[in-house]
Amino acid sequence: MSKVSQTAFGQDSRIVLNIYMVIFFSYMFLPLILMVAAGFNDFDTPSVTVWRGFTLKWFGVLAQDTRMWSGLINSFIIAVAVIAVSLPLGLAGALLVARLDSRYNTLIYGVMVSPLLMPGIILGISTLIFWREAGVSGGLFTAAIAQASYISSYTMLMFMARLERQDITLEEAAQDLGASHIQVFKRITLPFLKPTILTASVIAFLQSFENYNTTIFSIGGSHTLVTEIGSRMRFGLTPAVNVIGIIFVAITIICAALYVVFREREKVRTAAIK
After folding, report:
1. What is the CATH number of domain 66-238?
2. pLDDT tens digits for 13-28?
3. In sequence order, which ranges of the chain are alpha helices (DSSP H)?
4. 119-139: buried (b, 16+ CB within 10 Å) or exposed (e) per residue?
5. What is the pTM (predicted TM-score) of this model?
6. Which of 56, 134, 206, 268 is the most exposed place for a label (fewest CB within 10 A)?
7. What are the residue boundaries of the structural domains of the chain, listed by start?
């Protein structure tokens, strides 16, 4: 290929790449931009095509919406409960599959990931019926259990991926020196899993917070932020819902910025130690 052809090919590639990047970022961020704009529009329904002027009144409307705030609190309570349940279950399952030398490992693995293949409706209804037979009515507890039944499978997969990278000879050497299984887990395995514990906690929280299908069929008469928004879709929404999105976008940007700053400081600290 001649230099002229290579140059032309390189220019065409850059054009295609630029077009792709424009389409990609438009697909990713244009809905967010429109959502933010609608949150500041003085119009009764979320819209940017009908612009009635800039306003902050929807922030006040949201602040006075007690049902939205109670749904938000319920969402946080359920998410924390899901983390408390799904992380130990996921870790136990990962250790069982990774450390158990059995011909039934494939079967055990299949059973543990099977909740991921079940529709959320089935998980929600079955959980509600089971606990109702046990005398527990639908509420935050049943919603947390229903969510944890499949989110624990996610955490198990994350822990398994981390355990596959661990040098098992460290645990064997510690046991040869007289350490018990509990001591090995506390001193070697658990510190090795700390990054995954943090990541799995974040994933479990987000999976729980945004869940709708499983929650709506297991929560009974209670509600979360997502189920409340879903129920209002039938009667029409106000831009106060957009304000919720604006707040979460702002929180996400702040957290991302803090994470970048933290990582850069860690790199500088590591380079200084070396």
Report:
1. 1.10.3720.10
2. 788 888 888 898 888 8
3. 3-39, 57-63, 66-99, 105-113, 120-133, 140-163, 168-176, 181-184, 190-210, 213-216, 225-232, 240-273
4. ebeebbeebbeebeeeeeebb
5. 0.83
6. 134
7. 66-238
